[in-house]
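User: Batch of two.

Assistant: Item 1 of 2:
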Amino acid sequence: MTTGINYGNLMHQAMRGLIRTLLEDVLENGLPGDHHFFITFDTGNPDVEIADWLSDRYPGEMTVVMQHWYDNLEVTKDGFAVTLNFGDAPERLYIPFDAILTFVDPSVEFGLRFESTEAKDDDEAPVPAPRPVESTPEKGAHVEPDTPNPKRKDAEVVSLDTFRK
């Protein structure tokens, strides 16, 4: 018997559903205007499928960019597959929705961040925030700098009451 409603888990399901709906629309209609996505995911998730050299290079998490060049997008109920270009080397990836850590569309300053909703031991550290990402728009692939981008502004939490009349 449950002791209460797990709102965190329900919100994560809804947010993953939103990502699935967005990707289904992109599959059907392409990316409109300047929209593009930075998707950070857990490369250690057992259902992630990426080339060995990518999992060796990014053993914890990886950020990919869907922008100008992506191919063979497929969206299922559990995840999506896409071919992206990594330095003129196309690679097929499968990313389950539950492996996604962040989803950002910087063209409209929209972002989702998934934090662990499972009960953790006190000794365990929280899920780390992804590092800043610089895209290579002409390639539409992944670049992750070794040092943080000083131009990046931290997110600001705004109360919805601010906008109510």
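Item 2 of 2:
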Amino acid sequence: MFFALRDLRSARWRFVLITGVVLMLSVLVAGLLGLTAGLADQSVSALRALGSDGSGFVLPADDKGPVDLDRAALTDDQVATVLAEDPSAVPVGLARINLDNGTETGVSAVAVGLAGPVGSVTPPAAGEVLVTTGVDDEVGAGASQLSVGGGTLAVAGHVGDLWHSHTPVVVTDLDTWRELAPRGGAATTMAVQADPVSDAAVDGSGLALVDSDGLVGALPSHRAENSSLTTMTYMLLAVTALVVGAFFAVWGMQRRRDVAVLKALGASTAAVVRDSVGQAAIVLAVGIGGGVGIAALFGLAVGGAVPFVVSAGTTLVPAALLAVLGLAGAAVSLRPVVTADPNSALGAAR
């Protein structure tokens, strides 16, 4: 590593440029992953809460499979069919409504039957609602009642930070939900235990059984949003590998004569390769560490102003991916180092 460190000092501006580019790419990748996770939370956190206990869900289906949650509406007969298979099944309602508290706030009403909780969501008493952080931000914390559809509902408590389709959530009982969303049918979906209900049991009834991931995937806006952002992330990761590889390929060609001198002095090819990879690792460690750190600080600074999640999945995971891809790109560019001829350094080519 002696030659690598000496080269970093003597050609510092070249490596400042390379490190700066890696840093900016790291900020973009980590920032995009944090934003993707934040947007996902504001899209499906309520659905994830419903499926947090591993329950299955029965949705209405057409010839293409389960219908989108935006169109899902179970009939009374379908609810009865599911209850016949699993008497412990709990109907769940999802609908978008507007509050009448002078804010014209659009919220998502999430309702579960009074038979019991679904996942981490437990319904309040009849005619009451549980509010979330997003509702507090809109109507003010400490509100004792909400005006909806010309009537009022007493606020019975708080259920944390739940969102559905980028709208804050209020949790209510199923009968109240049916009054607020009369076009929503008897329920949107049914939470069931996986063992009593199988695909064969609901086959032919216009129903489909999905797991918690399938419930999240039934939200079309989330599918489109998540697939677009994920594609952008993969493209940035590929660009990172290409850019790092290109930088070190040019650097390898520029130092080919120096490597030839090292080999003429007795350095083995393996030692020179370790030296080159170690140099790339130093540049990547500084650039990636700085970039991921900047993205994490940004996420913490913006707080609730921007949907951004700072977690191991948005910091450590992209750092590891960028390091692996960066080293892979650097390894591919080692050909000038490996093929450097010590005879050229001794003047044999003259």
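Residues 12-50 form the longest helix (39 residues).
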